[in-house]
Specification:
About 45% of the residues lie in helices and about 20% in strands. With about 140 residues, the chain is an alpha/beta fold. It folds into two domains: about 30 residues; about 100 residues, Glutaredoxin, CATH 3.40.30. It has a five-stranded mixed β-sheet. The protein is elongated and about 70 Å long.
C-alpha cells in the first residue's frame, strides 16, 4: 500500500511540474509581430479609424494566451482582405475606457464596425477563413 501511494504521489508530482512548466513556457511566448496592414488603435485614434468603412477590431491583451494564438491569424487575414476593409488591434489594458464602452468582457473579442456602428461580434479565437467570410459578407 505504501509503495502504491509513493508511486501515485510521484506521478502526480511529475504531472503538476509538467503543467507548471508548460504554463511558464506559454506565458513567456513572445507576441507575433503585427502585419504592417494592421492598425494599432488607442484612445486618440480609435473613433477616427472605425468611423469610415469596414473595420474589424481585435480587443486583446499581451498576457492573454488565446490573443497570442489569434495574432498570426489576424496577420494572414490582413494580407488577404480585399476592398477597403481594415483590421485594427486595441489593447484593453491600455484602453480600458473603450473596452468598457463596447462591453468587452472577455478577450479576445473582435468587433466588426461599419461606418462607426457595431454590426457583428466574435468572441474567442476564430480562423482566417471565418474572418474573411464575415468581412466579405458585409
Amino acid at each position: 500500500m505504501n509503495t502504491t501511494l509513493i508511486i501515485v504521489f510521484a506521478g502526480l508530482g511529475v504531472f503538476v511540474y509538467y503543467i507548471y512548466y508548460q504554463y511558464k513556457k506559454m506565458k513567456n511566448t513572445p507576441l507575433a509581430a503585427d502585419n504592417d496592414k494592421i492598425l494599432h488603435l488607442n484612445v486618440t485614434n480609435f473613433q477616427k479609424e472605425i468611423n469610415k468603412g469596414l473595420v474589424l477590431v481585435d480587443f486583446w491583451a499581451d498576457w492573454c494566451m488565446p490573443c497570442k494564438m489569434l495574432a498570426p491569424i489576424l496577420n494572414e487575414t490582413a494580407n488577404e482582405i480585399t476592398g477597403s476593409a481594415k483590421i485594427g488591434k486595441l489593447n484593453v489594458d491600455e484602453c480600458q475606457i473603450i473596452a468598457t464602452k463596447y462591453n468587452v468582457r472577455s478577450i479576445p473579442t473582435m468587433i466588426l464596425f461599419k461606418d462607426g456602428k457595431e454590426i457583428d461580434r466574435f468572441v474567442g479565437v476564430k480562423q482566417k477563413d471565418f474572418l474573411l467570410k464575415k468581412l466579405n459578407e458585409k
